[in-house]
Write a structure and sequence with these properties.
Elements lengths: L5 H8 L3 H6 L4 E6 L4 E9 L5 E9 L5 E9 L4 E4 L7 H12 L11 H26 L1
Antiparallel strand pairs: 1-2, 1-5, 2-3, 3-4
Length: 138
């Protein structure tokens, strides 16, 4: 598994690599430059669009089929990646981008100034409450 630096993440979402990542963990067909095709389960797509597949059926230009447990494809050998017909391209690309860069949840840490203001605010609340109670009694 590759080290996923910010540069690699940006490289993968600024190109069509994010579309190839959308078919990760699915069975699909990939056509290669030398008129052959590969069908199998895509395990991983890295930022350079190198693909790791498992349970592969390799079909050469003459139609002969060969099976393999694992296969690694360099990006320069890939001509086409067949997308499943039920896949919406734009939503799947958005999902890949959200997985790559999940939204950050801000944790609020109080500075000394904020703590002091919050303490004054609480003190004022208590004073107002006590004033309300004295008015009710009268």
């Amino acid at each position: 598994m590759e080290k996923k630096s910010r540069r690699n993440k940006m490289k993968s979402i600024e190109s069509l690599v994010c579309l190839a990542r959308a078919v990760e963990n699915q069975h699909t067909t990939i056509d290669l430059q030398n008129e052959t095709s590969v069908y199998g389960f895509i395990e991983e797509v890295d930022c350079d669009m190198n693909i790791t597949m498992c349970d592969v059926t390799f079909t050469d230009a003459n139609g002969k089929r060969f099976s393999s447990d694992k296969l690694f494809l360099k990006s320069r050998l890939i001509r086409y990646i067949h997308l499943p017909p039920n896949m919406d391209v734009f939503t799947s690309m958005r999902e890949v981008i959200k997985k790559t860069f999940p939204p950050k949840i801000k944790t609020s840490s109080y500075s000394f100034k904020k703590k002091k203001i919050a303490a004054k605010h609480e003190k004022l609340k208590k004073e107002v409450q006590s004033m309300k109670e004295t008015l009710k009694r009268q």
